[in-house]
Amino acid sequence: MAFGVWGRVRLLQKAFQVKDSFLVSRNYAALSSLNPNEPKAPSMKSSVPGPKSKELQQQLDKIQNTDAVNFFTDFNKCQGNYIVDVDGNTMLDLYTQISSLPLGYNHPELIKAVQDPQNLAAFVSRSAIGAFPPNDYLAKLQSAFLCVAPPGLSQLQTMMCGSCSNENAFKAMTIAYRVKERGTAQVTQEELDSALMNKAPGCVPYTIMSFTGAFHGRTLGCLATTHSKAIHKLDVPTLDWPIAPFPKYKYPLEENLRENDAEDKKCIAAVEELFEVYKKKGTPVCGVVIEPIQSEGGDNHASAAFFRDLQQACKKNSAAFMIDEVQTGCATTGKMWCHEHFDLPTPPDVVSFSKKMLSGGYYYSDAMRPDQGYRIYNTWMGDPSKLVLLEAVVKVILEQNLIKNAQVTGAYLKAGLTKLSKQYSNICQNVRGLGTFCAFDCSSVAQRTKFMDAAKAKGLHLGGCGEKTVRFRPTLLFQNHHADIALNIMDAVMKEQN
Fold first, then answer.
1. Which ranges of 41-95 does DSSP label H, i.e. alpha helix?
2. Which of 43, 133, 193, 373 has the most crowded Cβ, counting Cβ within 10 A?
3. What percentage of the chain reaches a pLDDT higher than 90?
């Protein structure tokens, strides 16, 4: 199966119902990359990991556990959509540092931003933003964050990473719930004293609802809402917080509408029941956190109707509705924020972010705004140097219309994966995705490992998630000719393993 330029034209015509004139060029050699400095194709010199990677891993293992290390990378040689390891293997990277490189490797605009003397202080004199924000902080927030804020949310809190973003967002939800509950009453001395001893009434019994298969981080509070892999939680204390079922759909979606609609209704009924159960226990649910696509849990999707019903259940029970966009945010799904696909009647109360946004944090509604200073606080409260980089990223996204690029390239990639699934149904199943945020399931864990190892040997770096899912997390510069390379490699591997 060849995924050349003519095949791309036909697939795009079908996806977008366009004519031949939609594509400016049909000459594959003439197709230009959004990063002209990147390689034209993968180039493999050894197995992965190669001898240099293995040697470095042995040395590192003397001072820390290295079981999770894949291979060592030569970041100076990486360009655009291509990663280069220390053994000189150049691979098309569809995993991109666990979905955290919006413009790929060594993008010229980011290098330009780092080299700008005006930005030097942000890198060498790091600000404790909460107490001593830089003089250009407001301008940077506007050009990096607020100009792409989720519709309806104008409040913003920057943080360091996804876990601390979610952890502090959880605190914001509990604080807002208690402030509303307290009303005009003053905080008592008993509350202040008991809080220091981890006791009521200062420490509240509120809970946060999450979903089976979720991943929201590895700090203690976040772990109570994380349910994707047991190893994340093993031997760690946790909280008795409610866990609702996330919908499990049958594929193809268009052939299982009735069954999947029933699944949605069953899960919403379980959510409603948990609200009641925890209210009767004296531990009311003050907030619900959910991913628009469960990423680490296996790229599990739910319908727009499910999310709208979930938001309504939150409103009915006076609970905050939080969407964790740590992995789905920043244009990769064909919209700046994945939850924009759901046509929610009102904005979520909280939207957290990290990864492709380079800095962590969360947007929130006025109702979630802390009533006092130091309630949401730490030394750094983000990183001014990441603001510099994100400002450049957002500029490129808007100037090069990379949201549209994710839509077009994502439609082509998904169509190609669907074609593969029809020819190799024992290997490639349940193709799904929004934008370039795509995935498929293998028949087993062993099959996935075998497939991904063989693809890597041919120069295609992929990521796994869930039990047996292959996930695609390319850069925003990923184009149709990159998809051709990936699809041809996968076709060759599946043909060998079929």
1. 51-60
2. 133
3. 93
User: Which tokens go with 247?
Assistant: 């919908």
Is the per-residue pLDDT at 72 higher than 80? yes
Query: 329-375, pLDDT tens digit by residue?
Result: 999 999 999 999 999 999 999 999 999 999 999 999 999 999 899 99
User: Percent helix, strand and coil across the chain, each rounded to 5?
Assistant: 45, 15, 45
Q: Which residues are catalytic?
A: 215, 324, 355, 379
pLDDT, tens digit, 9 for 90 and up, residues 96-135: 999 999 999 999 999 999 999 999 999 999 999 999 999 9
| Helix axes of 257-280 and 304-316: crossing angle, nearest 10 degrees | 20
Closest alpha carbon to 267 in 196, 344, 214, 332: 214
Instruction: Output the CA angle 74-80-85, nearest 5 degrees.
Output: 20
Place of tokens 């939080």: 322
- Round to whole Å and give the CA distance between 237 and 214: 18
Q: How many CB atoms lie within 10 A of CB 14?
A: 11
Q: Kindly state the average pLDDT of the residues 385-410.
A: 97
Look at residue 32 in the predicted model and tell me its pLDDT: 72
Q: What is the pTM of this model?
A: 0.93
Torsion of CA 267, 268, 269, 271, to 10 degrees: 90
Amino acid making up residue 118: Q
Cβ 275 vs Cβ 285: under 8 Å: yes
Q: Which amino acid is at 99?
A: S
Contact 103, 396 (CB under 8 A): yes
**Predicted confidence (pLDDT) at residue 17 exceeds the cutoff of 50:** no
pLDDT exceeds 80 at position 146? yes
**Confidence at 2, pLDDT banded by 50, 70, 90:** low
Q: How many residues does the chain have?
A: 498
The alpha carbon torsion through 440, 445, 451, 454 (nearest 10 deg) reads 140
In DSSP terms, 429 is beta-bridged to 441
Closest CA to 362 of 310, 289, 311, 306: 289
Q: Indicate the pairing of strand 207-211 with strand 155-159.
A: unpaired
Residue with tokens 């024992």: 426
Angle at 64 between CA 62 and CA 65, to 5 degrees: 105
Q: What angle do CA 459, 462, 465 make, to 5 degrees?
A: 160
Cα torsion through 331, 208, 151, 369, rounded to 10: -120
- CA dihedral defined by 115, 119, 125, 127, rounded to 10 degrees? -140
